[in-house]
């Protein structure tokens, strides 16, 4: 009985918070303060010695509170709770997913280095990798789902920069296609190119699956990143990000965060702590709803095809990765409507309950048209390669009653007029 280990979802209401330090309040108050009063000058000196790495922390010593760009109780408690899901040593929360991603890329990549990254990635990440990093002398090399280990190793060797490889950056499942990348395979590639002086880091953007349904650190990844705006926040009312990993790497991430000053605010951290209390039940319900919606779409005669992890063909390589890497199919669905932009827009314009908006992971269901919205800025050639066409609609499924989501989609499909050609094909 003594060694019972609580599940993360049981600890989200209390872990890391001491009511006796806050007048017995059951919930952690919002620490809206820029600075913290030291009891004595000696204490201030001791806190700074640890914060600036001038000496090692004593075994039982906790890092003292100094200034909210360096540390704040709301951030620290939130970070400790996030560590539980991914079983990470440490976590850093940021004021956006993009600031989490760019801080990691800037810390670990220097002029002359090589970055290997998977396609497609989130639009903002794609822009930073393809436009900003080359401007500071980082070489970037894109890879695609379904390329084999040998093919990728050869691509890296042929780049002439194999000895400068510093990071492999993955986003899986890929947005908006739901294509999966094999995290274990990529971390083996990172090991293959690592030397005693140069450890190649594997970083995974786990926004679509995490932190509930996929745990990249268990498959050899070194860092896991989130847009906490999405499932972690989960209510479409804040922007935030997070990075998790080993103490050794997180010290570097947190140090750069201190100097860029892009940490989350105490208000944002407080809202995220509230969100974490319901994270598991929200995500489980969203995924169950998505399974029902995906099956409805699959049997609809105005739908050409559905991309959903719960509908992967069992003999496929993608299914094999899914079974090893994910514990649920998630709650993101894309489908191709019969016809094109006209039909997709008719559907989107007639939705009543499901909202027409980008972003994802919130409690409400959202629909959007990737080629003209989230992926409008992606190079047309790579869009073609990823099968992002004008027929594609992306859904983020929320926590509503699945019956109502299906009712809404069904009534909107009734407003969709197929072209004569599509009607002929139907018969
Ligand atoms: C939204 C998103 C981001 C960017 O996060 P922000 O919180 O909007 O800065 C990064 N990666 C993925 C997969 C996303 O969906």
Automatic annotation (TrEMBL):
GO terms for biological process: methionine biosynthetic process; transsulfuration. Keywords: Lyase, Pyridoxal phosphate. It comes from the Bacteria. The lineage of its organism: Bacteria, Pseudomonadati, Bacteroidota, Flavobacteriia, Flavobacteriales. The modification N6-(pyridoxal phosphate)lysine is found at residue 230. One of its GO terms (cellular component) is cytoplasm. This is Methionine gamma-lyase. Its cofactor is pyridoxal 5'-phosphate. NCBIfam families: PRK07049.1. Belongs to the trans-sulfuration enzymes family. Pfam families: Cys_Met_Meta_PP. InterPro entries: Cys/Met-Metab_PyrdxlP-dep_enz, Cys_met_metab_PP, PyrdxlP-dep_Trfase, PyrdxlP-dep_Trfase_major, PyrdxlP-dep_Trfase_small. GO terms for molecular function: carbon-sulfur lyase activity; pyridoxal phosphate binding.
């Amino acid at each position: 009985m003594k060694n019972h280990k609580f599940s993360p979802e049981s600890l989200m209401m209390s872990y890391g918070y001491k009511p006796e330090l806050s007048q017995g309040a059951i919930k952690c108050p919002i620490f809206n303060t820029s600075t913290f009063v030291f009891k004595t000058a000696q204490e201030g000196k001791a806190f700074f010695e640890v914060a600036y790495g001038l000496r090692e922390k004593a075994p039982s010593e906790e890092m003292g509170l100094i200034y909210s760009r360096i540390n704040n109780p709301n951030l620290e408690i939130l970070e400790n709770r996030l560590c539980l899901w991914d079983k990470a040593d440490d976590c850093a929360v940021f004021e956006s997913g993009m600031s989490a991603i760019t801080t990691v890329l800037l810390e670990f990549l220097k002029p002359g280095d090589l970055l290997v990254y998977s396609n497609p990635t989130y639009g903002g990440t794609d822009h930073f990798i393809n436009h900003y990093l080359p401007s500071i002398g980082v070489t970037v090399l894109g890879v695609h789902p379904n390329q084999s280990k040998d093919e990728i190793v050869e691509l890296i060797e042929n780049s002439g920069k194999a000895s400068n490889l510093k990071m492999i950056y993955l986003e899986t499942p890929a947005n908006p296609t739901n294509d999966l990348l094999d995290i274990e395979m990529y971390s083996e590639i990172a090991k293959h190119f690592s030397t005693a002086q140069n450890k190649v880091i594997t970083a995974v953007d786990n926004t679509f699956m995490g932190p509930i349904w996929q745990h990249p650190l268990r498959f050899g990844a070194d860092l896991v990143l989130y847009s906490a705006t999405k499932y972690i926040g989960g209510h479409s009312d804040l922007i935030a990000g997070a990075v998790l990993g080993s103490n050794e790497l997180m010290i570097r991430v947190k140090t750069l965060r201190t100097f860029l000053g892009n940490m989350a605010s105490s208000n944002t951290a407080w809202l995220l702590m509230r969100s974490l209390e319901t994270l598991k039940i929200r995500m489980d319900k969203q995924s169950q709803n998505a399974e029902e919606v995906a099956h409805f779409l699959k049997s609809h005669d105005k739908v050409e095809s559905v991309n959903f992890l719960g509908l992967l063909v069992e003999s496929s390589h993608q299914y094999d990765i899914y079974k090893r890497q994910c514990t649920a199919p998630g709650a993101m669905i894309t489908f191709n409507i019969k016809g094109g932009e006209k039909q997709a827009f008719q559907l989107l314009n007639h939705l009543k309950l499901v909202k027409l908006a980008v972003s994802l992971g919130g409690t409400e269901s959202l629909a959007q048209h990737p080629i003209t919205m989230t992926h409008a800025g992606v190079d047309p050639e790579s869009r073609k390669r990823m099968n992002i066409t004008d027929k594609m609609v992306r859904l983020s499924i929320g926590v509503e009653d699945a019956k109502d989501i299906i009712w809404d989609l069904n009534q909107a499909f009734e407003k969709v007029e197929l072209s004569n050609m599509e009607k002929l094909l139907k018969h």
